[in-house]
Backbone:
């Protein structure tokens, strides 16, 4: 990890100095010049941590870096070296156990990583070498190799595209696993490369590897024997990234330029670092406190010992002489060993067994997630997956959820729902959904039956068929010419109706949905060949249109147009776009009829588009054509000029209709988001997708409400003012800050609840480019202040949407929030490889077992089949796990404090001689046998509030927010309780022993009886205290609690009933039995147990009983909930696609 | 004590989900089992502690504890106890000279006698204890300085005692039996009790030395090597503890059942005390007849053979005469504690009742509008 960081750092330094030179196919530019083979790393991906030979030392080293393990090691060594009151076995054995189990677990995990690496590294690839095709393992690819990739294969390394099987020198690529965009992207071959790659002699100069997926600069020098070498510039459009998949292209050849860990994908990965939960941090903090207690106890005892020994006759009375060795020992050494002995005597206050129990609780507890049948998805036939059990409780502490959009919030599956032509509503009859019912019963019922004029209908459908940039997926049958193939296909389709099988490829899934929608109404787009668009009409006629111009979509204009010439010679302009951008450009009388439909659709949560058209006269067209051509060729301000022409052309159109497309949300996405927000969790959407799409999804998920005021900080808003971006950024940040932070005084209260009910909700939108400006502002001072402003704004917004994010930027955002004030707990959820970096960065990473491969699942901490499962995972499982483990930790510290405190107090009565109060067997067994099982059972089974209630009341999640049960206050309470109990046990028995004649035959009890009485009280009190805390008594709890008490009694009888041959001292022989024969001992045991539990009972009574209210569900309430969920899914939301201008600030 | 609601959620009818999976046999293992345990739906008892349920418990505890406490207190008060400090720390004490002139090497025992008067007769069996103060029998070095297998009659341990016995392991090249500091420092004062008649004659009171040690200690834990006969031979080749005047096999020559390691005085001493001030049972004075008290009121003399030095470590020696009840020796602590706790519970019960009453009425009135 460190090494890699270092390398990357070095790489960066290198980066500034030089670029890399690559000889394509390892052929040097000139034969007489010796090639100095440049050293690049090989194409091996390494994600594993250990190798066979460094496993043991490295793993041990890492384990002993844990403060607790190191501490136990020290204690163990002290016990081995120094004469101590307890045997080394008592701490050595558990430590050995813990270390071994952890090592085995980590070894197994690393073995899995090795296996996964090998799968990638051994993948066979074809490399062209000296004109031959050679099969190689992927890891053997070297920089400069020419690699051949076939359709649907992923690229084994970063390649420069040299040759494509497609005629137009392009290839299609989907980068779903990199940035989550599942659409097809077109990449181009380097111009002028020869057909025959064998003879190609070229070098590539390009920048050193860098993680930005969208940036690449390089030059390719092509050497020809007869000519000057030609230089071609290389950009991202020539670069095929490792991890992307070749689509719709038979095969390509490319030259490897970045390999292995230097590929952009690998650079975008972050090493999987050990994640620690907040609970573990609390444990460590408490551990330190107890360590201080321990050390101070030992110090106090050592000091007092020497003070006490100073009195004459105390140190070495005649009845208790020292051995010769003790006499010879140096005084200071003696003091030191005394100190260590006290440490060892009291070391049980920090028990190894706590770590064992915590680990076991986490490990066993995580099975409940895997076992939960609610997480089972019948579609993929899988349930949840737990990759790490260390973070169970962190699920109950989440404050920020970062979610991917594509595939996580949405199914990324657009569907044409309805259209409106000339004010009449058309709905495809087969589209059966709940919404149909809604519509039929609603107002515009009649209009469904009514039809617009046939002419208008057809115009509209033609518009849908023509106004797009969709490509038809061609059949991949080789041999025949493209044209013939297509014609065949067309003929076939005419004969065989199932046309919907046809595949479309587009940069935006909505366009596909629209074309498919038109197909349903009888107009089929057949494809585009050499500027001719063919459509099949209802009457099975094929119409051909010449595509003259495409006026591309851009987010500022928010519309796109095409200019086509029909067979009849008419020149037509079709335009589609957001209502807000279309309405001002059409005749106003047409608007009203359609506006109603559009607005209704928008409130139903669909993405709406308006379609307009215009007949261009010959002069008009000539003018437009000239303008467009000129603008396209302009070298300066090309964008602005184009925009001006576009705006000029797209005027005076007539509105012909509107469409509604549904971007299907994941099941229950909105409910899940609502529940999360109800639980006080802030949801941020981080997506690589376009802002418009993302925004509509946010509306659909109810992350943004109608009342939400949107603060937008994107390239668009930055360019609005016409000033420099930097200035505008500064200005906007300040403005938003004033709005969201300063003008909202209620936030100061700090309680999430108050502010979410505050009058104004804010939503924040930022895009990748702007974010990098915020994070890497030109001057240092600005950068930090921008970052702070940005953070503060974000933290005061209900939801934040970050679009156009590169994977690493997602991680940056997560990191920024993670490290912000109060270090909130973050959770990332995503399904694609582009989410891996943020999944790794966040405290908890959740992978969705989606369509985009297994990358996210492999790197996640938990994997669930669907987004909706997140609700139960957090609200029920997370909550319970947190409560369980928090109680477990506090209880463990408590029970060991009151275990050791009497031992400490006993030192005051035994001449500070490190005499243990309890027998060695009790010392060892206390944590292992007598008191461990009840708390383990508790920490696995406790449901202080039952699961249904937790799911129904998301607000319950807030009760445990901010690590509430492991703050210093509860810790202090438990510690004081432990001290109280310890004092009570010791002094209660102490006063009983002021006359040790406790039996009715006058016989006396000795020191071991004393210890046994204290220990008996201790075991019973501690177990009953847990019983009092248990709110959910299953038979297992009963069995374990009463069982361990019984076990204690039986064990004590047994242990004291036999003269054990292997024991040096028979200290406890019949001590327990004799104790039970004494009435006084019984009385004192009962008294002390009762007295210690008394305050606990009182507290339980005085605390407001939460139980009955929370637990007893009112049937009415659950009914309401049952009704609500279908209804709420039926009316998704306020959402506008391209038309939410009204809510935006700018 | 607790209000409880049984919240048994019945399991769904269909069990391990394969059957309804419709032939998808391969995948069936992946579908989580629908068992109550795995779905965290085990039937559970969910006790709720409320003021209403705890209240009676407080009263009950109070009502039980107070009488017990009173009983304990009365019992403890009825126990008669008489204590004599015979350390000889000050000049007035009868044993002053013995304490002052003590030397390990003296061969003649120093005797002293302490006269005392019992104001009240001791009715039942009287137990005679010796008490030591500031004697750290619970010091770690001391506690571990013994060899239980030697004391259990193990031959090999007899010849080579455990290292824990250092520096009382060997003397003059021979293993010490019994080894260790505890055995070495065996309390060896002899206490005798005489009743002085109204006419001035001293009547020795018979002191029973059996039944002062735990039965299991005497019969199982402590054993002489090679049986109880002929201890002299059994202990051949061992040496007596340095501070002892006579070897272990001469502890009680008159009674083979009380000699050697199974000598009860020795066993009692070997049970190390819990606190630096302790008492150990020395002798028992059996009640002779039901009519006369065991120790009638009157004048007594305690005859002490002063062998045991305690002045060097500021210790104290006491002789205690005490009767015993079912709860053991005199100790008012338990009685007081029980009365206190009982009263607290009772008091809390009353307070809770008041609070509960007020809270309840407020609560119910608040409930109506909601």
Residues:
């Amino acid at each position: 990890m460190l090494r890699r960081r270092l390398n990357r750092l070095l790489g960066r330094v290198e980066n500034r100095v030089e670029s890399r030179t690559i000889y394509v196919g390892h052929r040097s530019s000139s034969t007489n010049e010796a090639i100095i083979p440049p050293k690049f790393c090989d194409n091996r991906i390494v994600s594993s941590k250990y190798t066979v030979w460094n496993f043991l030392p490295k793993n041990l080293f890492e384990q002993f870096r844990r403060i607790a393990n190191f501490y136990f090691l020290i204690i163990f060594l002290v016990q081995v070296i120094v004469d101590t009151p307890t045997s080394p076995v008592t701490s050595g054995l558990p430590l050995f156990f813990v270390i071994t189990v952890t090592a085995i677990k980590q070894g197994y995990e690393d073995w899995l990583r090795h296996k996964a690496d090998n799968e990638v590294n051994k993948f066979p690839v074809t490399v062209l070498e000296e004109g031959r095709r050679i099969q190689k393992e992927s890891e053997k690819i070297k920089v400069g190799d020419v690699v051949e990739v076939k359709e649907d294969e992923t690229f084994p390394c970063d390649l420069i595209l040299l040759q494509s099987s497609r005629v137009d020198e392009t290839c299609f690529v989907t980068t779903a696993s990199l940035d989550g965009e599942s659409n097809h992207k077109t990449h181009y071959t380097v111009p002028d490369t020869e057909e025959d790659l064998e003879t190609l002699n070229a070098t590539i100069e390009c920048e050193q590897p860098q993680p930005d997926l969208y940036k690449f600069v390089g030059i390719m020098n092509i050497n020809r024997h007869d000519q000057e070498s030609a230089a071609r510039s290389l950009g991202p459009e020539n670069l095929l990234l490792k991890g992307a998949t070749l689509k719709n292209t038979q095969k390509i050849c490319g030259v490897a330029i970045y390999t292995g860990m230097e590929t952009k994908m690998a650079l975008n990965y972050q090493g999987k670092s050990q994640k620690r939960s907040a609970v573990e941090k609390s444990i460590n903090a408490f551990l330190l406190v107890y360590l201080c207690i321990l050390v101070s106890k030992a110090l106090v005892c050592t000091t007092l010992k020497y003070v006490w020994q100073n009195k004459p006759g105390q140190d070495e009375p005649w009845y208790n002489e020292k051995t010769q060795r003790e006499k010879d020992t140096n005084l200071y050494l003696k003091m030191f060993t005394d100190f260590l002995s006290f440490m060892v005597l009291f070391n049980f206050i920090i028990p190894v067994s706590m770590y064992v129990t915590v680990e076991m609780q986490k490990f066993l507890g995580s099975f409940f997630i895997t076992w939960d049948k609610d997480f089972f998805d019948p579609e993929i036939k899988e349930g949840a997956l737990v990759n790490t059990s260390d973070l169970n409780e962190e699920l109950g502490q989440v404050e920020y959820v970062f979610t991917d959009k594509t595939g996580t919030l949405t199914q990324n599956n657009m569907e044409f729902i309805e259209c409106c032509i000339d004010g009449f509503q058309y709905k495809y009859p087969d589209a059966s959904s709940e919404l149909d019912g809604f519509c039929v019963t609603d107002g515009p019922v009649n209009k469904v039956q009514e039809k617009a004029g046939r002419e208008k209908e057809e115009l509209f459908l033609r518009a849908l068929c023509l106004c797009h940039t969709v490509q038809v997926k061609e059949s991949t049958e080789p041999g025949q010419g493209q044209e013939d193939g297509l014609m065949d296909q067309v003929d076939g389709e005419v004969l065989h109706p199932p046309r919907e099988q046809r595949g479309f490829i587009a940069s935006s899934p909505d366009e596909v949905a629209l074309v498919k929608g038109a197909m349903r109404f009888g107009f089929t787009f057949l494809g585009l060949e050499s500027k001719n668009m063919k459509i099949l009409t209802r009457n099975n006629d094929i119409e051909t249109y010449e595509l003259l111009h495409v006026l591309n979509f851009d987010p500022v204009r928010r519309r796109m147009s095409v200019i086509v010439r029909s067979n009849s010679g008419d020149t037509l302009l079709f335009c589609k776009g957001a209502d807000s951008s279309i309405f001002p450009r059409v005749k106003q009388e047409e608007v009203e009829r359609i506006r109603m439909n559009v607005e209704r659709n928008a409130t139903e949560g669909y993405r709406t588009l308006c379609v307009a058209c215009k007949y261009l006269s010959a002069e008009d067209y000539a003018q437009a054509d000239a303008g467009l051509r000129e603008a396209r060729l302009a070298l300066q301000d090309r964008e602005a000029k184009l925009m001006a022409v576009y705006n000029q052309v797209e005027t005076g159109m007539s509105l012909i209709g509107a469409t509604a497309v549904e971007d299907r949300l994941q099941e229950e996405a909105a409910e899940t988001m609502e529940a999360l927000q109800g639980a006080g969790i802030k949801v941020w959407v981080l997506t690589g997708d376009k802002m418009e799409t993302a925004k509509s999804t946010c509306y659909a998920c109810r992350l943004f409400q109608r009342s939400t005021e949107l603060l937008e900080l994107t390239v668009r808003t930055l360019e609005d003012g016409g000033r420099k971006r930097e200035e505008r950024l500064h200005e906007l940040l300040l403005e938003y800050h004033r709005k969201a932070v300063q003008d909202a005084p209620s936030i100061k209260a700090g309680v999430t609840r108050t502010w979410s009910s505050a009058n104004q909700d804010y939503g924040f939108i930022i895009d990748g480019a702007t974010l990098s400006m915020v994070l890497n502002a030109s001057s240092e001072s600005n950068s930090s202040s921008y970052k702070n402003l940005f953070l503060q704004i974000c933290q005061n917004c209900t939801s934040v949407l970050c679009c156009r994010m590169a994977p690493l930027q997602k991680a940056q955002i997560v990191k920024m929030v993670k490290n912000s004030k109060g270090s909130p707990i973050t959770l990332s959820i995503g399904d694609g490889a582009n989410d891996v970096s943020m999944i790794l960065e966040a405290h908890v990473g959740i992978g969705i077992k989606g369509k985009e491969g297994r990358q996210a699942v492999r790197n996640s901490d938990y994997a669930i089949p669907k987004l909706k499962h997140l609700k139960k995972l957090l609200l029920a499982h997370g909550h319970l796990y947190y409560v369980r483990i928090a109680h477990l930790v506090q209880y463990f510290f408590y029970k060991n404090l009151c275990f050791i405190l009497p031992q400490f107090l006993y030192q005051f009565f035994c001449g500070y001689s490190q005499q243990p109060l309890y027998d060695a067997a009790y010392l060892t067994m206390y944590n292992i046998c007598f008191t461990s099982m009840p708390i383990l059972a508790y920490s696995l089974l406790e449901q202080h509030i039952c699961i249904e209630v937790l799911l129904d009341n998301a607000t319950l999640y807030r009760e445990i927010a901010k690590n509430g049960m492991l703050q210093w206050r509860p810790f202090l309470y438990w510690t004081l309780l432990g001290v109280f109990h310890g004092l009570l046990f010791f002094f209660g028995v102490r006063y009983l022993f002021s006359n040790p004649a406790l039996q009715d035959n006058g016989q006396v009890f000795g020191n071991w009886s004393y210890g046994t009485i204290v220990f008996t009280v201790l075991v019973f009190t501690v177990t009953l205290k847990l019983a009092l805390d248990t709110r959910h008594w299953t038979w297992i709890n009963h069995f374990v609690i009463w069982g361990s008490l019984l076990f204690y009694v039986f064990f004590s009888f047994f242990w004291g009933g036999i003269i054990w041959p292997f024991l040096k001292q028979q200290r406890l022989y019949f001590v327990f039995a004799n104790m039970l024969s004494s009435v006084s001992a019984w009385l004192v045991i009962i008294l002390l147990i009762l007295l210690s539990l008394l305050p606990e009972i009182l507290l339980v009574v005085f605390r407001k009983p939460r139980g009955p209210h929370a637990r007893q569900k009112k049937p009415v309430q659950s009914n309401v909930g049952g009704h609500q969920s279908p209804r709420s899914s039926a009316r998704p939301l306020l959402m506008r696609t391209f038309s939410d201008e009204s809510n935006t600030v700018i | 004590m607790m209000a409880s609601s049984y919240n048994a959620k019945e399991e769904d009818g269909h069990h391990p989900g394969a059957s309804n999976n419709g032939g998808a046999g391969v995948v069936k293992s992946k579908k989580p089992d629908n068992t109550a345990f795995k779905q965290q739906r085990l039937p559970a008892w969910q006790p709720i502690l409320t003021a209403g349920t705890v209240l009676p418990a407080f009263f009950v505890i109070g009502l039980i504890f107070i009488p017990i406490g009173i009983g304990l207190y009365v019992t403890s008060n009825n126990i008669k106890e008489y204590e004599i400090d015979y350390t000889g720390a000050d000049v007035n004490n009868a044993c002053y000279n013995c304490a002052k002139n003590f030397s390990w090497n003296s061969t003649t025992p120093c005797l002293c006698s302490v006269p005392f008067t019992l104001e009240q007769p001791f009715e039942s069996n009287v137990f005679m204890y010796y008490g030591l103060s500031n004697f750290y029998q619970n010091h770690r070095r001391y506690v571990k300085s013994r060899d239980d297998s030697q004391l259990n009659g193990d031959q090999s341990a007899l010849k080579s005692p455990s290292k824990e016995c250092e520096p009382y392991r060997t003397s003059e090249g021979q293993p010490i039996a019994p080894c260790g500091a505890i055995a070495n420092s065996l309390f060896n004062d002899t206490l005798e009790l005489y009743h002085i008649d109204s006419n001035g004659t001293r009547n020795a009171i018979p002191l029973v030395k059996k039944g002062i040690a735990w039965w299991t200690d005497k019969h199982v834990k402590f054993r002489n090597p090679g049986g109880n006969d002929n201890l002299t031979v059994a202990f051949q080749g061992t040496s007596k503890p340095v501070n002892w005047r006579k070897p272990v096999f001469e502890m009680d020559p008159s009674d083979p059942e009380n000699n050697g390691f199974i000598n009860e005085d020795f066993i009692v001493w070997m049970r190390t005390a819990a606190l630096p001030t302790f008492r150990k049972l020395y002798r028992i004075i059996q009640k002779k007849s039901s009519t006369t008290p065991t120790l009638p009121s009157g004048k007594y003399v305690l005859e002490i053979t002063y062998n045991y030095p305690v002045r060097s470590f500021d210790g104290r020696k006491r002789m205690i005469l005490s009767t015993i009840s079912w709860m053991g020796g005199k100790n008012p602590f338990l009685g007081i504690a029980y009365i206190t706790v009982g009263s607290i519970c009772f008091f809390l019960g009353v307070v809770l009742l008041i609070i509960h009453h007020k809270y309840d009425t407020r609560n119910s009135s608040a409930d109506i509008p909601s």
